[in-house]
């Protein structure tokens, strides 16, 4: 990590324009007295006590809760098959949630389709198939802006500022890029809607440690612009290091939930999930 303590400074961003106008300025809002939303005590995004599975299949999630608050990075870790991606899909509306609910800024969105959730301000980068490989980098970003009817060139410029290599490669088919660059395309695509919250499923999958560090730095940068981030990570240690909140999922259940720091220090979490 190039910046060992990314949160020591004011997390306000110099340039907030990448954020959704309705979602921006939460730091300022927090400093003012009085409630900032209808449900000030509820996390900004929460999949609350979710139970459900795929189609008519068995439940994969059992009373599972994941959430992220304003100004925060929340990280979900756990063994393969624990249900991390399933929990993300449930929050994004891609799963039949049999009980439990999803709240965005205090509003119950459990019944909304994924597309309606995007309109409400959710950005989601799935674990696989998260870019159009035959389209150019720029076309991918344009596709990301599909819900917008306004001029999105400023947002595209901001994505290129965040990921300069994408500007260089904007005319290349995204499928020709390296793994780390493809993940940048995927994150950039999600940012094109100016989301109020960003969900990332294993954004550093299959990249080298150096590229992973770089991606984490960019993710921290995005969080600093005022976009809360809920992400799944297989690089558990590194991810918990930058996490305000961490969730360890095991067999579709919450096994441990705490600050990233506390989870890193917990002997049982260390032994079972962080390799000692
Ligand atoms: N589309 C699907 N249809 C049916 N079952 C599925 C589907 N996707 C996942 N599952 C099952 O749900 C369980 C949880 O899988 P999930 O992909 O959520 O785990 P994960 O924690 O994301 O794992 P990984 O670390 O490998 O990404 C597994 O038993 C898996 O086989
Ligand atoms: Mg997964």
TrEMBL record:
Biased composition (Basic and acidic residues): 8-17
Domain of life: Bacteria
Name under which the protein is recorded: ABC transporter ATP-binding protein
Any GO molecular function: ATP binding
Source species: Seohaeicola saemankumensis
Region feature Disordered, mapped onto this chain: 1-44
Domain ABC transporter: 45-276
Keywords: Amino-acid transport, ATP-binding, Nucleotide-binding, Transport
InterPro entries (alphabetical): AAA+_ATPase, ABC_transporter-like_ATP-bd, BCAA_Transport_ATP-bd_LivF, P-loop_NTPase
Pfam annotation, one family: ABC_tran
CDD domains to which the protein is assigned, alphabetical: ABC_TM1139_LivF_branched
Keyword Transport: yes
Protein family membership: Belongs to the ABC transporter superfamily.
């Amino acid at each position: 990590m190039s910046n060992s303590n990314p949160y020591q400074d004011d997390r306000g961003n110099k340039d907030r324009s990448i954020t959704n106008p309705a979602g921006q300025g939460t730091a300022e809002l927090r400093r003012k007295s009085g409630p900032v939303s209808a449900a000030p005590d509820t996390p900004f995004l929460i999949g609350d006590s979710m139970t459900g599975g795929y189609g008519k299949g068995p439940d994969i999630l059992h009373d599972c809760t994941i959430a992220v608050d304003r100004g925060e990075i929340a990280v979900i870790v756990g063994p393969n098959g624990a249900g991390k991606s399933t929990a993300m899909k449930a929050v994004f509306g891609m799963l039949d949630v049999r009980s439990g609910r999803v709240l965005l800024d205090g509003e119950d969105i459990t019944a909304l389709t994924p597309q309606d959730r995007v309109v409400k301000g959710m950005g989601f980068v799935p674990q696989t198939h998260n870019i159009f490989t035959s389209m150019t980098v720029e076309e991918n970003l344009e596709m990301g802006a599909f819900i917008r009817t306004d001029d999105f060139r400023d947002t595209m410029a901001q994505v290129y500022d965040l990921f300069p290599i994408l500007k260089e490669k904007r005319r290349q088919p995204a499928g020709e890029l390296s793994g780390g660059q493809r993940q940048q395309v995927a994150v950039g695509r999600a940012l094109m809607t100016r989301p109020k919250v960003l969900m990332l499923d294993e954004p550093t999958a299959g990249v080298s440690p150096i590229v992973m560090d770089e991606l984490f730095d960019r993710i921290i940068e995005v969080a600093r612009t005022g976009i809360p981030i809920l992400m799944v990570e297989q690089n558990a240690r590194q991810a918990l290091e930058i996490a305000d909140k961490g969730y360890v999922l095991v067999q579709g259940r919450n096994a441990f939930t705490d600050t990233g720091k506390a989870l890193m220090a917990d002997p049982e979490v260390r032994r079972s999930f962080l390799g000692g």
